[in-house]
Design a protein that fits this description.
single chain; alpha+beta; Aminopeptidase; Alpha-Beta Plaits; 7-stranded mixed beta sheet; 4-stranded antiparallel beta sheet; about 35% helix; binds zinc ion
Length: about 400
Amino acid sequence: MALLPELEESAAAIAALRRDIHAHPELCFEEVRTSDLVAARLEQWGVEVHRGLGRTGVVGTLRGRDGGASGRAIGLRADMDALPMQEFNTFVHASRHAGKMHACGHDGHTAMLLAAAQYLAAHRESFEGTVYVIFQPAEEGGGGAREMVKDGLFTRFPMQAVFGMHNWPGMRAGTMAVGAGPAMASSNEFRIVVRGKGGHAAMPHMVVDPVPVAAQLILALQTIVSRNVKPIEAGVVSVTMVHAGEATNVVPDSVELQGTVRTFTLEVLDLIEQRMRQLSESICQAHGAQCEFEFVRNYPPTINSAAEAEFARQVMREILGDEGVVPQEPSMGAEDFAFMLLEKPGAYCFIANGDGDHRAPGHGGGPCTLHNPSYDFNDALIPLGATFWVKLAQRWLAAT
Ligand SMILES: [Zn+2]
Ligand SMILES: [Zn+2]
C-alpha cells in the first residue's frame, strides 16, 4: 500500500480528532460544533475558509503553486452529520449526547478530508490549480448537498469535477471501489390513505371496509417490480408502515400505508410512481373507497460519470495495486451527493471499513454495519483515505 508517509505520521492526531467528533455528534443542519472545529483546523493550516453554505457547510480553498492560475479545480466532499439514534458502544469516545450517534461514519469522512487538506496546505508546490474541500451538513435526510448547491457552491467555487467517498463495512479492509454509472439509488417515500366508511364490525354490509382494500393494494404494489419494470432494471417497492384500527369490533374508517421506493434511473421511478397511483386509485374505486396518494422524491440516484470513475479507479490502483481495487456493487441505499453529481461530473467512491475487528473494547454487541448502534468508523482508514484524496487531486489537476 503506497501511503504518503506524512499522512501516516499525522494519522494518530487526526484519529483523535475523529474520536472527538464521534463523541459530539450533531444532527442535520445542527453541525455547529463540528463545522467550527473543521473551520478552525483549516484556518490553522492556512486554508482560506468560507462558511454558511447550506447553513453549516464549510468550503476550504487550496490554491497550488500557480496560485490557481491554471483555472483547473476539483472538489472533494465529506459529510459531517450524525443520526438520531442511541449508541450502544460504551468506549471512551462513545457519543456524549443521548439519542445522537455517528453511526454512518461521517465523523471519519470529515477526518479523512481534514487530513488531506492539512497535507495539501503544507505542500502547495505539489499541485497546480485549486482544490476545494467541501464539508457538507445534513446528508442523513436533510439534503445538505442540495442546500449547498442552492447557496452557490458551484458558482462561487467553480470546479470541473467533484468527488465523494463513503466507508463501507463488510468490504475487506485495505480495499477501495468505484464504478461508472449508478452507485446509489434514488430514495422516495409514499403515503397512501384508503378511506372507507367505518362502523360496527358485526355489520359489514353497512360499511366500506378499508382493510381488505388495503390488503389487496399491498399485494398489487408488489406486482410493479415483478410485472411492469423491465427485468434487467432494478427497483424496490417496500410498504413499511400499515396503520389502521383500534378495536376488534370496529371497522376503521381508513388505513394508512407508507413506504419507500428505490430506483437507479428516473425512467423506472416515473414508471413505478405512475403504476402505484393507478393501482391505488383503481383498487379503491373498485371497492367504493376513496384514495389519497402522495409520492415524495427525496434523493435522486447517485450516478458516477464514466471518465471520472475510471480516473478515480486508476488512483486507487496506484495506491493499492490491482488486488486492492474491488468491483463496485451498486447499493439500493441513497446518498445526497447525488445532487452534486447532477451539476458536475464526478464519482462516489467506497473505502472498506472492514468487518468490525478494529472496534475498541466496550463496543456494543451488534455488528459493525452502517446505522447500527454498535458501529464505529475504522481509524486505520485515515491515512489511506487521505492519501487517496491527495493523489486524486494532484493527478486530476495535472491531467490535461
Ligand atoms: Zn447513513
Ligand atoms: Zn453515510
